[in-house]
Amino acid sequence: MTTKDTTAPTSTPLLAWIILFGLALIWGTSFILIKKGLEVYSSDELGAIRITIATVSLLPFALRGLKAPTRQQWKFLLFSGLIGNLIPAFLFAYAETQLASGLAGVLNSLTALFTLIIGAIFFQQKITALRVTGIVIGIVGTAVLIFSGSAEENSSNGFYGLYVVLATIMYGGSLNIIKHKLVGLSAITMASLALLTVGPIAFVYLCTTDAFHKLNTVPQAWEALGYIGLLAIFSTAIGLVLYNKLIHMTGTLFASTSTYLMPIVALIWGVADGETIHLMHYVGMTVILAGVLLVNRAK
Question: pTM of the predicted model, to two decimals?
Answer without folding.
Answer: 0.83
